[in-house]
From TrEMBL:
<dbReference type="InterPro" id="IPR036390">
    <property type="entry name" value="WH_DNA-bd_sf"/>
</dbReference>
<keyword id="KW-0238">DNA-binding</keyword>
<keyword id="KW-0804">Transcription</keyword>
<dbReference type="InterPro" id="IPR002577">
    <property type="entry name" value="HTH_HxlR"/>
</dbReference>
<dbReference type="Pfam" id="PF01638">
    <property type="entry name" value="HxlR"/>
</dbReference>
<keyword id="KW-0805">Transcription regulation</keyword>
<dbReference type="InterPro" id="IPR036388">
    <property type="entry name" value="WH-like_DNA-bd_sf"/>
</dbReference>
<protein>
    <submittedName>
        <fullName>Helix-turn-helix domain-containing protein</fullName>
    </submittedName>
</protein>
<feature type="domain" description="HTH hxlR-type">
    <location>
        <begin position="25"/>
        <end position="123"/>
    </location>
</feature>
Amino acid sequence: MTTTRRYPGDPEDPGLPYNAFAKECPSRGTLEHVTGRWGALTLGALSGGSLRFNELRRRVGGVSEKMLSQTLHALERDGLVHREAQPTNPPRVDYELTPLGHEAARRVLSLIHFLEDSMDDVLLARESYDARGAR
């Protein structure tokens, strides 16, 4: 007997309770938070340990204060980042990954490292594409 192998997220596969390929699936929002430019870099930066807001902002070059704040709020709401406010003067706020956040960061960093290791090939492909005048 042959079994049909379905792609991950196939709407006809009842094996998973969530399906990111379905428009209404709540996992889509989290996927966007994790894989968006600032989310992926924030998770990667926090994988090294707890950081204060400005330390994190310096580590994630190019992110504005507003975007980092929005990103951290989204990741905290999704249970990937823990925010710890210290009752000091001035207030001290530290951010760190939760266990779920560490797992997400590990996977995101794997993709980041793959892309970094493959950049010579990517740059050659871009050069070839541009030389063909393809659009």
